[in-house]
């Protein structure tokens, strides 16, 4: 082997060695960043109802499960009281159980880092005190006058339509205190009709179907 061949082999060996070292000294890619820990916010629950809350559960949006009871053992939320819960930031709704066994579920509320998201328990709607008298015109003639009164009263009183007409197939409703009522109607041609007495109950409608 000539000297030039020896030098060529030495140079080739040095090039290969340098390449191998370069490969072995390459740094691995940096790891994926770890998501920052979720920060806590506050969910404030205000009891604006007249009921006592015995249990309060929360559900985070995007999940199917409800949490366990968030109230401490033996704790209840009386009317007018508040309770607060620390939760990771997100959107939540609340399921409550009242002392009478009824349940209530709130709409979704946003809880943000170091912020307060509030849920107000609404008061119950008062029980209706009135019922409805509905006069349905099932005849082909228009009704020009409607009068009604309690069964115990001596007269039907004033015309309730005040110049309006109830067309054929139409109906008109009036709110009245509960009781037994009779209805008198006058068609546009002057023909009278009187209905038998019917019971009007709170929160219900009583339909007087007028035919001819």
Shape annotation: elongated
Radius of gyration, taken over Cα atoms and rounded to an integer in Å: 40 Å
User: What is the averaged pLDDT score?
Assistant: 85
Number of strands: 14
Distance between the termini: 131 Å
CATH homologous superfamily heading of the largest domain: Domain of unknown function DUF5300
Q: Which percent bin holds the helix content?
A: 10-25%
What can be said about the biggest beta sheet?
4 strands, antiparallel
Helix segment count? 1
CATH architecture of the largest domain: Sandwich
CATH class identity of the largest domain:
Mainly Beta
Query: Residue ranges: pLDDT <50 for 5 or more in a row?
Result: 22-26
Structural class by helix and strand composition: mainly beta
CATH topology of the largest domain: Immunoglobulin-like
Approximately what portion of the residues adopt beta-strand conformation?
35-45%
| Number of domain modules | 2
> What is the ordering of alpha helices and beta strands?
HEEEEEEEEEEEEEE
